[in-house]
Amino acid sequence: MTPAGLLEVENPSSLFISDSTNSGSAIVSVIEGSRPLLVEVQALTSPTFFNYPQRVATGIDYKRLSMLLAVLERRVGMSVHGVDCFVNVVGGIKVFETSSDLGIILAIASSIKNIPIAKGTVVIGEVGLGGEVRPVYGIKNRLKEAENMGCKVAIVPQKNSDAKTKKIDIIGVENVPQAVENTMGS
Q: pTM, whole model, 2 decimals?
């Protein structure tokens, strides 16, 4: 809204992602209405000084965060029980869609390992309790939006990896350990 009236936002995804190359940051794809939108998820982990580590979730469901931390600990073997964990979705967006699960986990793992996820990478996938990465709907539209935003790599569920795009390298993963390995090494 401007003094002259409403102005079109031609590329809303550009409002919610930055050029940051810090560890603990991942770009995820969500569907808002019928439109795919890329948003940045940031995670910060720090050793705790309390008996119970803090878990703070802004823009995602707190219980979902707890579940994803349990998957990261149990299925990847990454210790999260001794760290405070803060997760934020940039721009005040509230993410209810499970397609952001893998991105949230990778942002947390990136923060713990202090290894940034490569710039131009989008992460898409629902995570199950067994650590499996489940397919999501609308993968072609999500990848098209990622391509429009200049993404070069997409980490997607193996069952969605047959989606074609001209400018994005598709990396299909079956489980969370495989996704962590593909983004940050061992």
A: 0.91
Residues paired with residue 43 on neighbouring β-strands, in sequence order: 87
pLDDT digits (tens, 9 = 90+) for 164-185: 888 999 999 999 999 999 998 6
For residue range 98-147, what is the model confidence (pLDDT) as tens digits?
Answer: 999 999 999 999 999 999 999 999 999 999 999 999 999 999 999 999 99
Whether the Cβ atoms of residue 175 and residue 133 lie closer than 8 Å to each other: yes
Encode the chain in three state secondary structure: CECCECCCCCCHHHHCCCCCCCCCEEEEEEEECCEEEEEEEEEEEEECCCCCCCEEEECCCHHHHHHHHHHHHHHHCCCCCCEEEEEEEHHHCCCCCHHHHHHHHHHHHHHHHCCCCCCCEEECCEECCCCEEECCCCHHHHHHHHHHCCCCEEEEEHHHCCCCCCCCEEEEECEHHHHHHHHHCC
Structural domain spans, the chain: 22-179
For the domain covering 22-179, report its CATH number. Answer: 3.30.230.10
Q: d(Cα 27, Cα 29) in Å, to the nearest integer?
A: 7
79 CB-contact burial (10 Å; exposed 0-12 / middle 13-18 / buried 19+): exposed
